């Protein structure tokens, strides 16, 4: 049984949620705009008689305001805001009141100094620049080594997936506006400068465009959508040079270089499942984020795209035989593991994917009694990602 951290990583790799109008990703542009006015709903402001719902899990030492709660056929949703979280960065969370107590006991809220290394935008190895044809993006301002951590941030906003349907739509939109309004002015501006793709309510549009799915928070069944404004600057690429992971105990998202990155190179992440042929990638990106992908991998010749699609289909046909990465009963045949490794190299599936292929090869070599080859491929797995850990 994989650990909670590994389960969270598998959520990133293998599951792609449709949350509102967008899946788990974030916008393809970051626009420097003048922050709009966050809509106020004076009838349900925290502190009014109807919203002073002091649930058993409200801890005033952590949460800056009494929680505002909405009730509907889908359950209960309460808004909690901490302005002291992460050294004053702050966070607003919309979640069922019954899990708020467990959330407030997470190390992110209780361990002093745990987040000291997070949210340091001044130390980042990239600059925000206009990318022709792609809007605002992030460009490396120095060489970034393979495996180097590029960013480490806490979210500004987290919304429990179950809470999104708990209250009537107008009440949820009002609660989302209040979630932003209760943050500091700097954090409000940071949130509102993100790109919205779909139109309509500004705050909801930003959430739908820029949210990541973050699983295993205060329980393996708890999935949130989380907004990391700094990471929304990374444009999509079907063969990205960054990979990311979440730590549900510290509520941090980290990005790492999947390969060595030269100065002047745009930094990219993938919004979608990398193991998809071009037609699927274009369909998901157009429907979920409203753009036709023009990344280098999708812009190759038709002949090259056909070859790539054939490699992907072959990879997908073999993977079910080898997908039980951490199971002691995994029996991926050596030939399959080596073919997956070869296909991953051809497709430039850098980072986690090729590392998992190397690890399956290491396990297959070990079962065959070829310990030196098992050790070699085990090291290759370790060398190709900082997201996963592999134990033979």
Automatic annotation (TrEMBL):
* The keyword NADP belongs to this UniProt entry's keyword annotation: no
Claim: Transcription regulation is one of the keywords in the record: no
What are the residue boundaries of the SET domain, all occurrences included? 124-272
Instruction: Read off the Gene3D superfamilies from this record.
Output: SET domain
Keywords, ordered alphabetically: Signal
A Pfam family recorded for this sequence? SET
- Per the UniProt entry, the signal peptide is 1-22
**UniProt xrefs under PROSITE patterns:** SET
**InterPro entries from the entry?**
SET_dom (IPR001214), SET_dom_sf (IPR046341), SET_domain_protein (IPR053185)
Protein name per its UniProtKB record: SET domain-containing protein
The upper taxonomy is:
Eukaryota, Fungi, Dikarya, Ascomycota, Pezizomycotina
